[in-house]
Amino acid sequence: MINPLDIRKHEFTKAWRGYDRDEVHALLDAIAREFEELVRRNQTLTEQLRAAESEAGRYRQVEKTLQDAALTLQQ
Fold first, then answer.
1. How far is CA 42 from CA 11, 38, 39, in A?
2. 26 or 13, higher pLDDT
3. Whole-prediction pTM value?
4. Residue 15 backbone phi and psi in degrees, to 5
5. Rounded to whole angstroms, how far apart are CA atoms 2 and 28?
6. Do residues 10 and 32 lie in contact, with contact meaning Cβ atoms separated by under 8 Å?
7. What pLDDT, on the 0 to 100 scale, is given for residue 7?
8. DSSP labels for 26-71?
9. Spatial contact of 8 and 28, defined as CB atoms under 8 Å apart
């Protein structure tokens, strides 16, 4: 997987009448910054998902306990 550092450190081969190096580096820096933000956002969302799944598991356990208690009371 490519990471922001790979983007920042990538060197293009030099060619006669090639692209403007400053423009290429500016674009790579912008892409790397955006990619860093996306990685951070992904990590945040992953952590939130884990927390939500854990909480849902607790609620499922409470629901099962209440269902078992209701069944016991019915009997």
1. 27, 6, 5
2. 26
3. 0.66
4. -135, 150
5. 13
6. no
7. 84
8. HHHHHHHHHHHHHHHHHHHHHHHHHHHHHHHHHHHHHHHHHHHHHH
9. yes
